[in-house]
Amino acid sequence: MQIFNTLTKKKEDFVPINPPEVTMYVCGPTVYDFFHIGNGRTFIMSDIIRRYLEYKGYKVKYVMNLTDIDDKIIRKANEEHTDTKEISERYGNAFLEDISKLKIKKADVYPKATENINDIIKMISDLIDEGYAYNVSGNVFFNVNKFNGYGKLSGKKIDELEAGARIEINDEKTNPLDFSLWKKAKEGEPFWESPWGKGRPGWHIECSVMSLKYLGKTIDIHAGGSDLIFPHHENEIAQSEAVNKNQFVKYWVHFGFLNIQNEKMSKSLGNFFTARDILNKYSAEAIRLLFLQTHYAGPLNFSEELLSASEKGLEKIKNTIIKIKEIRESHKFGNEISELDFHYFKKQFEEAMDDDFNTPRALAVIFDFIKNINSEISQKEKLDEQFYIKADDYLTSTAVNVLALADLNNFKNESRNNLEDALIKTLIDLRIKAKNDKNYQLADEIRNRLKEIGIELMDSKTGSTYKIC
User: Fold this and answer.
1) Quick check: 25 and 224 in contact, CB under 8 A?
2) Can you spell out the DSSP letters for 58-112?
3) Which residues contact 314 (CB under 8 A, 6 or more apart)?
4) pTM for this prediction
């Protein structure tokens, strides 16, 4: 199994620090608003990586932080004439609700910045004692010139760097690239007592402290959006390795941008959709399927047209799983043995995912498997029970457990017990009656009208079924 490591700029064999345990840290949201679907790509693809590691037999300890104190949260609280705690709790709860709807497994821990203030103060004090940080009138900064190797993740060099949009311009700094570890509280802002006076932590220090606290000095995988490579993840490395004297992360994984009309989706540009809005119109599985069709590291164009196409593709997976499970429940088996090589498809899926989580290739394997399964079922009416057990196990372990493209707890009822399904079945029954009455014109009209709205009828010796095209 190989992972592309942003730090070394190449694919590397995955060798955990303490197998079979794998430690994984994912940068979570700043909880001041509903998160947009571009951030959702990070959360979903991190979930896929975790699920696949578990499929491979690893025990994953998974931590995702919540930044619950920040300039944006303070600004939002002021706009709404409330306090930062109310804002962070409201949107923190909304975040947890929305990622659950996206079929993302719960993290083992969701640590919050405000719950780790004492640990943050301790790390900052240690950095000052070690000579890596300095205090200026209550503001504490990390001195990037003191850390040998600053820029090794992003490939940037200190002498070539200029102050960017997320780098604060501050005359108090020794170097304009120095970043805040502790911010002196302004009038009316929330604060905590510290050796340097009243203030609050900087953004970067939070992740270093919480990853150390819950996962140790060196973690296996640190994941996040590619926009976090610099300065956030670069700064995490500097402060963590300066104080812990250990490599901070073995494998850095970064996810590409989600684009609208080839332009990065972001709140600052105003070209974004919240995950909550999208979930009101499309299923979580369709969103996941869309994301899986592009490798996690590359850019991905996002549109409602592509989501609609994903919904249709999803039906092929759902319908096949339903068909297999219904036959298993009916116990209508025969003695015909399929020559389909299930091991081949398992191997192909694993080879795809072992190659830096190549989900487009893994999806192609699953759809090829579904095509072959349906062909076997249509050609052989009395397949033995083992065929259906193996087919069920394969789709459950890959499409359901790893990719989460179907929810076995509820999608069957949703698919079979809604009004739409009942109406289609009624039309199928009317068509059968028309054929029995030799009213072929009406039978053909029903078939054609259904086809016009994307529903294809399939006739066999045992009756008629349908699929959504």
Assistant:
1) no
2) -EEEEEE-BB-SSHHHHHHHHHTTS-HHHHHHHHHHHHHHHHHHTTPPPPSB--B
3) 283, 285, 286, 289, 405, 406
4) 0.85
The predicted-structure confidence for 392-411, as pLDDT tens digits, reads as follows: 999 999 999 999 998 776 54
**pLDDT at 456 (0 to 100):** 83
CA dihedral for 399, 400, 405, 410, sign (positive or negative): positive
Within 10 angstroms of residue 419's Cβ, the number of other Cβ atoms is 7
Q: Could you read off the pLDDT of 450-461 as tens digits, one per residue?
A: 888 888 887 765
Number of domains making up the chain:
3
User: What's CA 357's distance to the chain center, in Å?
Assistant: 13
Assess whether 99 and 225 both reside in one domain.
Answer: yes
Which residues are 61's β-sheet partners? 23
Half-sphere exposure of residue 422, counting CA atoms within 13 Å on the CB side? 5
Q: Which of 383, 410, 437 is the last residue of a domain?
A: 410
Integer angstrom CA distances of residue 460 from 331, 457, 466? 19, 10, 11
Helices H, strands E: what count in the chain?
15, 15
Alpha helical stretches, state H, 175-265 = 203-215, 234-244
Q: Looking at residues 141-167, what average pLDDT do you find?
A: 81
- 218 in Cβ contact with 248 (< 8 Å): yes
pLDDT of residue 469: 64
Name the amino acid, one letter, at 296. Answer: Y
Kindly state the tokens that stand for 428.
């199928």
Residue 387 near residue 340 (C-beta atoms within 8 A): yes
Report the distance separating Cα 338 and Cα 330, nearest Å.
Answer: 19
Nearest C-alpha neighbor of 362 from the set 103, 45, 59: 45
The answer on 375 and 424 residing in a single domain is no
State the residue range of the domain holding 140.
2-280
Residue 298 lies in a domain: no
* Structure confidence by residue, pLDDT tens digits, 219-277: 999 999 999 999 999 999 999 999 999 999 999 999 999 988 667 776 666 667 899 99
Q: What is the DSSP letter of 232?
A: I
